[in-house]
Design a protein that fits this description.
By secondary structure, the protein is an alpha/beta fold. It folds into two domains: 54-341, Alpha-Beta Barrel (TIM Barrel), CATH 3.20.20; 379-502, Nucleotidyltransferase, domain 5 (2-Layer Sandwich), CATH 3.30.420.130. The chain contains 15 helices and 16 strands. It has helices spanning 10-25, 54-60, 113-126, 145-158, 173-182, 197-200, 216-236, 256-265, 285-288, 296-305, 337-342, 349-377, 443-449, 463-471, 485-501, and strands spanning 75-78, 87-88, 130-135, 163-168, 187-191, 206-209, 212-215, 240-247, 270-275, 312-313, 324-325, 389-393, 410-416, 421-428, 455-457, 475-477. The chain is globular. The two termini are 30 Å apart. The model is unreliable at 1-43 and 518-528 (pLDDT under 50). It binds FE(8)-S(7) cluster and iron/sulfur cluster (SF4). Iron/sulfur cluster (SF4) binds next to strand 2. Pfam families: Nitro_FeMo-Co, Radical_SAM. Belongs to the radical SAM superfamily. NifB family. InterPro entries: Aldolase_TIM, Di-Nase_FeMo-co_biosynth, DiNase_FeMo-co_biosyn_sf, MoaA_NifB_PqqE_Fe-S-bd_CS, Nase_CF_NifB, NifB_C, rSAM, rSAM_sf. Residues 30-42 have a biased composition (Gly residues).
């Protein structure tokens, strides 16, 4: 394969975005997934109870992937019971976890269904906000049906309050829909990177189908037909579906608008567009042949272009197949097989419910603080009303600015304007603080990762990173420590605008940022 130098054309995407919005107005198009809601444009991962029917809200309100707000408070876990796969993707090296739902280059500890159920109960007794069990590899959940469904069946009997979720490439999906419904699996992710086999043959070298290996266009055609059929069948049965798409510059970047349109037509609830990660060290076909991933602004441009079509998820962390914890944190090391052998497991449903009620109270306070800050922001301040900026936030959960700059392994990115605050994604970074001292060499890479932001909100920051950020034109802000994120960001934005109004500074546009590729360095995520 030739080295891809094609960049996503942002202008082309804007035109495509118009086409998607026009289509949205066309007769017969529904505003939201047909299983998914009211038809209001907001009924996606950032929506709340007013945007959708109560039965849908009930399914997503504590699912950290299906509700963006929930991801600040609720945790998920994966169990790695599904090692086999029935297709080959050019961005996957089978030595590692399935890249459709995982960060490339990661190896998970494989479990039997019995081990998996013990692990879920152990995690549920230690982490009461863990509400969802997903099976997402390390191969394909539905290429290992016995192990996948045995795990779900045993767990449903022992921990009925845990939502069940699975992820698949879709090849075996149609024949598994009855089983999925039998075990009340309410959330299914299908990775769909194309709706045109001519695009698909550049992504999938082969599939294993009907007892033989099929290659080229024919392989992509069969996969496409199975994916569309499976999605339609799940929609008809009322199962919420999320579509994952890997953005591969030069191959499917502008094509993802059409994917978005087609999956919306078939009732998908959410569309999650993820960046290709293709480090050569991961040994994938793309990685070894120079196919690059998108920059942060290219990813945002494709996501923005799809707005108005199927609802977007922007808070995906490309988890590992044995991930445990809030999205963005990884506690899998605390629950290895030898450790759970030693644990006393008490699955206390009442305790879990009490904890989750507490979380709901906190979540409502966060929501109220955001609404109040937005109402205040609406007042005319004489500064350009269309100005929009990005800010980075260091958080370790609960929806608050509550992390030290040096402890962050990712920053959450919000877009601020006078009228709204929108979560636009996260940026992974290497840990700056290395057990008591700052690692100066990490600073340029951290600055690169948030280089399109005007400010970074943190609980605390040392003098050295403070100076480096300032020199790069990013304002370090620690005066909102432990406040709710949206309120803090909007208050900072009001102050920023006020300083412009007083002539103390001039607003300057920022540049692009780099999406973290290879493995991490530093304590917390070193194992991931
Ligand atoms: Fe897991 Fe996926 Fe279910 Fe979530 S993850 S199977 S829907 S419980 Fe979530 Fe992780 Fe992104 Fe997946 S952040 S990789 S979207
Ligand atoms: Fe790898 Fe997942 Fe693709 Fe299978 S479906 S080849 S495990 S990325």
């Amino acid at each position: 394969m030739s080295h891809s130098t094609a960049f996503v054309s942002i202008e082309g995407l804007r035109k495509g975005r118009q086409a998607v919005s026009d289509m949205r107005e066309a007769p017969g198009s529904s505003g939201c997934g047909s299983t998914g809601g009211s038809g209001k444009p907001g009924c996606g991962s950032s929506a709340g109870p007013d945007d959708m029917p109560p039965e849908i809200w009930d399914k997503i309100k504590n699912h950290p992937c299906y509700s963006e707000e929930a991801h600040h408070h609720y945790a998920r876990m994966h169990v790695a019971v599904a090692p086999a796969c029935n297709i080959q993707c050019n961005y996957c090296n089978r030595k590692y976890d399935c890249s459709n739902e995982s960060r490339p280059g990661v190896v998970s500890q494989k479990l039997t269904p019995e081990q998996a159920v013990r692990k879920v109960l152990a995690v549920a007794s230690e982490i009461p906000q863990m509400t969802v069990l997903g099976i997402a590899g390390p191969g394909d959940a539905l290429a290992n049906p016995r192990k996948t469904f045995d795990t779900f069946r045993m767990l449903a009997g022992q921990a009925p309050d845990i939502k069940l979720c699975l992820s698949t490439n879709g090849l075996a999906l149609p024949e598994m829909v009855d089983e999925i419904c039998k075990y009340n699996i309410d959330h299914v992710t299908i990775t769909i990177n194309m709706v045109d086999p001519r695009v698909g043959e550049k992504i999938y070298p082969w599939i294993f189908w009907d007892h033989r290996r099929i290659t080229g266009y024919e392989a992509a055609r069969i996969l496409h037909e199975q994916q569309m059929k499976g999605l339609e069948m799940l929609t008809a049965r009322g199962v919420l579906t999320k579509i994952n798409s890997v953005l591969i510059p030069g191959i499917n970047d502008s094509h993802l608008l059409e994917v978005n349109r087609e999956v919306k037509k078939r009732g998908a609830f959410l569309h999650n567009i993820m960046p290709l990660i293709s480090e050569a060290e991961h040994g994938t076909y793309f990685g070894l042949n120079g196919q690059r991933g998108p920059t942060a602004q290219e990813l945002k441009a494709v996501q923005d272009a799809c707005m108005g079509g199927a609802n977007l998820m922007r808070h995906c962390r490309q988890c590992r197949a044995d991930a445990v914890g809030l999205l963005g944190e990884d506690r899998s090391d605390e629950f290895t097989l030898d450790k759970i052998e030693q644990m006393e497991i008490v699955y206390d449903l009442d305790k879990r419910r009490a904890y989750q009620r507490q979380v709901e109270t906190e979540r409502q306070a966060q929501h109220a603080a955001k609404e109040a800050a937005l109402a205040q922001a609406a007042a005319d301040d004489g500064v350009d009303a269309d100005m929009a900026v990005l800010v980075a936030v260091a958080t370790e959960g609960h929806g608050k600015v509550n992390q030290h700059f040096g402890h962050a392994t990712e920053f959450q990115i919000y877009e601020l304007s006078k009228a709204q605050i929108t979560f636009v994604g996260h940026r992974r970074v290497d840990l700056y603080c290395q057990g008591g001292f700052g690692e100066e060499e990490q600073l340029p890479s951290i600055v690169n990762a948030i280089n399109d932001c005007h400010a970074v909100l943190v609980a605390k920051i040392g003098a050295c990173p403070r100076d480096e950020l300032k020199a790069a034109g990013i304002e370090p802000v620690d005066r909102y420590a432990h406040e709710f994120i949206e309120k803090a960001a909007l208050d900072w934005f009001a102050d920023y605008r006020a300083r412009i109004g007083r002539g103390e500074l001039t607003h300057q546009p920022r540049g692009d940022a780099r999406i973290r590729q290879g493995a991490y360095t530093g304590g917390v995520e070193a194992a991931a």
